[in-house]
Amino acid sequence: MTRIAIIGAGLSGLTAAQFLKDFADITIFDKSRGTGGRMATRRAAPYSFDHGTQFFTAKSKAFQSFIAPQIHAGVIERWDARFAQIEINKITSESIWNGNHPHYVGTPTMSTIGKYLSRELNINLNTRISKINKTSQWQLWDDKNKSQGTYDWVITTTPASQALELVPEWVCFHPKIKEVKMKACFSLMLGFNEALPLKFDAAHIIGRDISWITVNSSKPRRPDNFSLLIHSTNDWADAHIDDNRKFVEEHLCDQTSDTIGYDLSKATHRAIHGWRFANIDKSNSDTCHIDPDAQIAACGDWCIQGRIEAAFHSGHELATCLLQKMNPTGEINA
Ligand SMILES: Cc1cc2nc3c(=O)[nH]c(=O)nc-3n(C[C@H](O)[C@H](O)[C@H](O)COP(=O)(O)OP(=O)(O)OC[C@H]3O[C@@H](n4cnc5c(N)ncnc54)[C@H](O)[C@@H]3O)c2cc1C
């Protein structure tokens, strides 16, 4: 069987692994303590915060089929949130979802989806791959300079900037990765003793340094304790990603207080997380990248758009292309 190393256990990596696992010998590496990547949850009892992905839609048949078993298993549920748009501090529109595509969340946390997809996969967590080198095969090393084995193929599924650190310059799609510019984002997490009487569960904010507020506790099967999750704008995060975190926390907390008209400085729990590679605008590039001669490939949301469904499509497309190249003995032809 072809030995494949997948670097990154976010949705794109886990999707590729799910479609390839019956045809190849897959080993996955992730630098984090858990799987799911930006589909992440931070616990701070009695609160929990989905501090990355907020919700997602499934517009394509392929993604709908992929998530169907997870809906059946109770790992994914609909979130029929009350949505609002707020300009500076005024609600300018309010709605409840009524379109064709439900809003989905992982249950009881967003990170449950990664855990579910990781079952029966061979995953090495807490393992940051820092170097890959090709002789007759690909050899991987971690950041402690320990060899992590040799493989016929390598698939990187990390954000583009992190892929650029790994993929050698001579690989044919290296220039494509170099073109990609990902944007940063801060997530502010606030927990309260008592619920605030807000008129929305999720709000898109215009005209401030924050872009989004979610009542995290309004999502299905979350702890009852009232919690808010706030995102900065990408522009503000890009300009302040290396600033003192206390300053960032204070500023985003003040912005949120002014937006919703409540003094949030009295929150019983307050924490901040910075995502250096959070998001990307729509790309017109390839859905995934393959160098068949070098036996290396790359996928991830950055190939398409900063969305869960895009991460799925990139991983799915890559697995489909590799399976098409596979001969009956399980080798992937150049
Ligand atoms: C704040 C925020 C809010 C978002 N909100 C939404 C939303 O509401 N709806 C939506 O659809 N999308 C949203 N997104 C986007 C969505 O989360 C991503 O599109 C999707 O999760 C990307 O999946 P991926 O597999 O491409 O990458 P990732 O999830 O980033 O996975 C890459 C993995 O690679 C690992 N890794 C990186 N470098 C290495 C290395 N050297 N060695 C080993 N492992 C490594 C990382 O730890 C990570 O687990 C949001 C993202 C952020 C950050």
Write up this protein.
Helix content is 25%, strand content 30%. With 334 residues, the chain is an alpha/beta fold. The chain has 2 domains: 1-41 and 110-180 and 281-334, FAD/NAD(P)-binding domain (3-Layer(bba) Sandwich), CATH 3.50.50.60; 54-108 and 183-279, Polyamine Oxidase, Chain A, domain 2 (Alpha-Beta Complex), CATH 3.90.660.10. α1 (11-20) packs parallel to α8. It is globular. The two termini are 16 Å apart. Bound molecules: flavin-adenine dinucleotide (FAD). Flavin-adenine dinucleotide binds at residues 7-13, 29-32, 37-39, 52-56, 128-129, 157-159, 162, 185, 187, 231, 275, 278-279, 300-301, 306-308, 310-311. Flavin-adenine dinucleotide is lined by residues 7-13, 29-32, 37-39, 52-56, 128-129, 157-159, 162, 185, 187, 231, 275, 278-279, 300-301, 306-308, 310-311.
